[in-house]
Design goal:
Length: 234
């Protein structure tokens, strides 16, 4: 047990999928895992361990934003020895060619700051994805015929962002989409020598203002989880 995760030693798998929403962790575990057991209920941040095609997997909610994700990822790595951590979540698209429901595989994450900034001090560290996971996820998306984009994303501290000038510069510099967690996940994976990737479904579009309906969200999330699981065990 840790401060935020009630699982006993051995109840967390080496491979962990991290949705922001704990109810999405429950849905994904019920939909994709065999013999899923709830291993965490602390603060309602549900976690489940089960198996997918014979491989042990944990699906643990991370909450919204980098400070929350940082707590769960730190404890999963330090106390439960998680080796592969894949964020599954939604993002807002920032390029015209990207459509709602497309998948974005985050190669790098730009951020104004992260919970790790204190140790980097003057350094602007570039958090990047694990290449083996990124490559395998790309392949899995190709095999499934899913529209996927690989490139840089923005991990924001604010959902209700009030910096249109910054958004404009990111769009100009090819940033694919915005979410709120991946940069810190990549920082922690780099620090502890673990593998990390963010597989993101485009739920809304910052330029066109389109957004997914709830039915479209569910089928989009299904593709995202399938890609993440295929990549983890490729
Ligand atoms: N901003 C930040 N995070 C998000 C967004 C967004 O527009 N959409 C989905 N996650």
């Amino acid at each position: 047990m840790t401060i935020h995760i009630g699982a006993r030693p051995g109840e967390i798998a080496e491979t962990v999928l991290l949705p922001g929403d704990p109810l999405r962790a429950k849905w994904a575990a019920e939909t994709f895992l065999d013999n899923a057991v709830c291993v965490n209920r602390v603060r309602g941040m549900l976690g489940f361990t089960g198996s997918w095609k014979g491989h042990r997997v944990t699906i643990q909610g991370s909450g919204m934003g980098m400070p929350s994700l940082s707590i769960y990822a730190n404890e999963l790595i330090r106390d439960y020895d998680a080796k592969t951590l894949i964020r599954i979540g939604s993002c807002g698209a920032m390029q015209e060619r990207i459509r709602p429901r497309d998948i974005i595989l985050a190669m790098t994450c730009s951020a104004i700051s992260t919970p790790s900034q204190g140790i980097f001090r003057e350094l602007r560290f570039s958090p990047c994805a694990d290449w083996s996971l990124l490559h395998a996820a790309w392949q899995a998306a190709q095999d499934a015929g899913t529209r996927a984009h690989v490139g840089g994303i923005y991990s924001s501290d604010a959902f209700y962002d009030e910096r249109p000038d910054l958004e404009e510069q990111m769009i100009r510099h090819g940033i694919l989409g915005v979410e709120m967690e991946a940069a810190e996940l990549y920082n922690l994976a780099a620090r502890h020598g673990r593998r990390a990737l963010a597989v993101l479904t485009v739920s809304d579009h910052l330029l066109t203002r389109e957004a997914l309906s709830s039915a479209e969200r569910e089928s989009g999330f299904r593709e995202m989880v399938e890609i993440a699981l295929a990549a983890a065990f490729a």
